[in-house]
Design goal:
mainly beta, Cyclophilin, 2 domains, seven-stranded mixed beta barrel, six-stranded antiparallel β-sheet, elongated
């Protein structure tokens, strides 16, 4: 079974659950930015939870079925059509050979996830089919004319439509301070936790850049590079925070003032330019 890309839209990537456990060789986990949307998608289609799907930034994707497939869309919610007729979000949709699926611009959220029963099946690298935009691993971003191979499919389960994940309005993220909050003045730490921050248009899968008040350091020296994880809030030389996404570098030389709890990092996948982000401090539970 095959799907043909007639338009990739702004950016469409193949993503699965990633390649965790390779930080020691300089490779981040990568994988779907919105992991919850990927799990929903694969549940609807009866796939393995880690099956590869398309992560579509901003809509505009147009796919033509070269053979009959079952397809579904989750994540950021927007118009979905099959040959121009509206189609359901969060439900398995049959596509006959020759029919076209089109995604409009999301009205809630930023990234949609498109999957097929059987999952997409490009060549695997280091145990994953995910595109890592920083390391250059995995399939290239989709281009017009690409043919997407599909794995063996099982029958999708009989489920109700899943709810849209895309959020509007302010986004609140739980964080724990550190490990380098002591490199900043107490006033800067308060500003981080009390100020509204706006998502910058310069954000991507490597990091979500925020704009707001300058976070002043209490130390002026150089920090040796140290390990970083998804959700690390690194403060760059201009005093603005960057939250690391799935394609983050595994080490960094800017101090990390706080870390977004892992369960909230998926929310950043759906945060569009100009959206307001606030941080809520949580205590770090220790055994």
């Amino acid at each position: 079974m095959t799907l043909v890309v007639e338009s990739p839209g702004l950016l469409a990537l193949v993503e699965d659950s990633g390649r965790p456990g390779l930080g020691h060789v300089g490779v981040s986990a990568s994988g779907a930015f919105d992991r919850a949307a990927l799990r929903q998608l694969n549940l609807v289609l009866g796939n393995d939870p880690a099956a590869a799907a398309l992560e579509v930034l901003g809509g505009g994707l147009l796919l033509r079925a070269a053979s009959s497939v079952m397809i579904a869309v989750t994540g950021g919610a927007g118009p979905i059509t099959v040959d121009g007729d509206p189609a359901a979000y969060g439900r398995a949709i049959p596509l006959r050979a020759g029919q076209r699926l089109a995604l409009g611009t999301p009205t809630a959220g930023l990234r949609a996830y498109v999957g097929v029963a059987g999952g997409f099946a490009p060549r695997s690298e280091l145990g994953s089919r995910s595109t890592d935009t920083l390391a250059g691993l995995g399939p290239a971003p989709l281009h017009e004319g690409d043919r997407l191979e599909v794995g063996p499919a099982s029958r999708p389960p009989d489920l109700e439509d899943v709810p849209p994940i895309g959020r509007t309005g302010e986004l609140t993220l739980d964080v724990v301070l550190g490990p380098r909050d002591d490199w900043f003045t107490p006033a800067a730490v308060r500003l981080l936790l009390e100020s509204p921050w706006q998502v910058s248009p310069a954000s991507n899968r490597v990091g979500v850049r925020l704009t707001g008040p300058v976070l002043q350091r209490s130390r002026t020296g150089e920090l040796p590079s140290e390990p970083c994880i998804r959700g690390s809030i690194q403060v760059s030389a201009d005093g603005q925070p960057i939250i690391f996404g799935p394609d983050h570098p595994v080490t960094g030389g800017y101090p990390v003032i706080a870390v977004v709890l892992d369960r909230h990092t998926d929310r950043l996948a759906q945060a569009g330019p100009g959206q307001v982000v606030r941080f809520r401090r949580r205590a770090l539970n220790r055994p």
